[in-house]
Description:
The protein folds into two domains: 2-182, Vaccinia Virus protein VP39 (Rossmann fold, 3-Layer(aba) Sandwich); 189-294, Lipocalin, CATH 2.40.128. Helices cover 20% and strands 41% of the residues. The protein has helices spanning 2-11, 36-46, 63-72, 83-95, 126-137, 168-171; strands at 53-57, 75-80, 102-106, 119-122, 144-148, 159-165, 174-182, 189-195, 202-211, 214-221, 224-227, 229-234, 237-246, 249-260, 263-272, 275-288. Strands 11-10-9-8-16-15-14-13-12 form a nine-stranded antiparallel sheet, with no helix packed on it. It binds S-adenosylmethionine.
Amino acid sequence: xxxxxxxxxxxxxxxVPARASxxxxxxxxxxxxxxxxxxxxxxxxxxxxxxDYLIDLGSGDGRIVVTAAKKYGTRGFGVDLNPVRxxxxxxxxxxxxxxxxxxxxxxxxxxxxxxxxxxxTMYLLPRVNLQLRPQLLELKPGTRLxxxxxxxxxxxxxxxxxxxxxxxxxxxxxxxxxxFWVVPAKVAGVWGSRLTPAGKAHAYxxxxxxxxxxxxGTVRVNGRAVNIRNAKLNGAALSFEFTADLDGMPVKxxxxxxxxxxxxxxEAGLSGSRIAARVEWIAERAAxxxxxETID
Length: 296
Ligand SMILES: C[S@@+](CC[C@H](N)C(=O)[O-])C[C@H]1O[C@@H](n2cnc3c(N)ncnc32)[C@H](O)[C@@H]1O
């Protein structure tokens, strides 16, 4: 807690506007570099590879983007408002021989197109993370986000670690918190399916509620409702289970599929005393709830 307060105080020690405006942009966060050991851990948590495209928001001397390129062959770019930082980052990229993989732009992070990213890193401030959150939630499902020291309010992290960082704050030392999220697909609403195990068709209507990556809901099977259990949403990958009667006998249903906008495509496993089947599962969206931040 002490280190977290110190980090907020250090990072907020410059009076900055709530949001840097397009004209006459002011930094939303001052420069404090992430210790190299923390950079390494952030990239390991995100499992970055040469197939990824990484964007660091407020890239400072470029260490996160340069390390990802050097260690994993990851392409990407950083943005920073401060031209001195951009010069340092470009020099850093030259020094480590990764200028073919990375670029640095003097640009406001709020005006940056993030759609190319598969991984986004940040070391900003709690209120800046919250300002960014709506934009981050609109990114492609499966996009990974890693934040040094600061969370996203009630969007709970999928993974979190705390580590010692001896060289933090110009060598003063301290703890670093790392938060990791996967952007969830939008599944809230009503979806319809038909399954045909053993040649007989059954109608399913799924009603999902969603708060970020946390899913709950019910399913109506041939008109009777039961709660779904063990629902998991990791990016676009959705799985859940329930037990419902088919032809008067309880049948365990295990569903897994990938959400692609208004369709889910996957498979369902059904097991009961008279049935054991694995069938294709296609669900179509029947209705939609627009804003996942507001759904409890
Ligand atoms: C805490 S430092 C983090 C630097 C680097 N990402 C790291 O982890 O070592 C934050 C950086 O964000 C930059 N910055 C602050 N507000 C910004 C904005 N609105 N747009 C772009 N860069 C910004 C600052 O100039 C600073 O270099």
